[in-house]
Amino acid sequence: MKKTCLSALFSVLTVVGLAAAPAMAQDDVRLNRSIQTLENGDPVFGLFTGNFSLANARGLARSGLDYILIDMEHTAHDMETLQAFLLGLTDKAAVARQGHAQMRTTPIVRIPANGRNDPEWLVKQVLDLGAFGVMFPYVETAEEAERAVRAMRYPQPRGSAIAEPQGMRGASPGVSAWYWGVADYVQRADTWPLNERGELISFIQIESAKGVENAEAIIQVPGVSAIFVGPADLGMSMGLPSGHPEVQAAIDSVLQLCLQYDVPCGITTNAGDVEARLEQGFLMPTVGYWGDAGIAGGTAETLRIAREASGRTD
What we know:
Blueprint: H1 2-16, H2 33-39, E1 46-49, H3 54-61, E2 67-71, H4 79-88, H5 92-98, E3 106-110, H6 120-128, E4 133-136, H7 142-152, H8 174-180, H9 185-188, E5 201-206, H10 209-213, H11 215-219, E6 226-229, H12 231-238, H13 245-260, E7 265-266, H14 274-280, E8 286-289, H15 297-310
Helix pairs in contact: 3-4, 6-7
């Protein structure tokens, strides 16, 4: 019954479309707070979660985390559950206090398609529900990264200086515009920083030996917002434990390229290594994994250490 009601609600919103989208977000206000923080030169801290309960969504919305990686790679890929979870992340009291539609915690969805798979239909559905970013696992070539970016972008207006990579996302912005709280969703729903006004994060995972070999080409693809190094899969790809010096050297080589090209880089961390990772230059570390309802003690401690180490006071 609940899923039926949600489906009916979103169907109505899709039909009504942009005409029903309140223009409550000012042009000079970033909707994606994680992008705003990165533009200010500060790191952002995230968490992977596979718990899509409303209780967890409410807890994460007020957790102090900057972004949530909603993991649909290793959990069920359920669009109706994602709809409910995204709505649960919306803190209406916070929106009312600040006077604009920016969410404190940015929802980014990790899809199950890796670089070798067709991502377009998955990306379209995730973004049409209102996600502010997509994480693409196991990307190994620049061509795969470009396909990921194209899947996230609408075709640009004729004469646009940022028409490439050419977008292939179909137009049905009604639900996402309603969720974002804007009337100009199509103009804002583009990959940052290729589009300086874009509010979408394309998060490309490099987690194989081949991905490391092609890292420089991947990082330079226009429209790539950030890179995330996956130590566990990278270690498996190299036939070594993730803590092996060769794996760590590969991770560092990707980070150095990100620093060279001014592309934010993420990695998993814990209370014992988050400060060192920040000192290395990682700007988008995760500070925990999963989470039952909000964030557990270990994650909260890692987040505290990370914020203190980075000087974040907001």
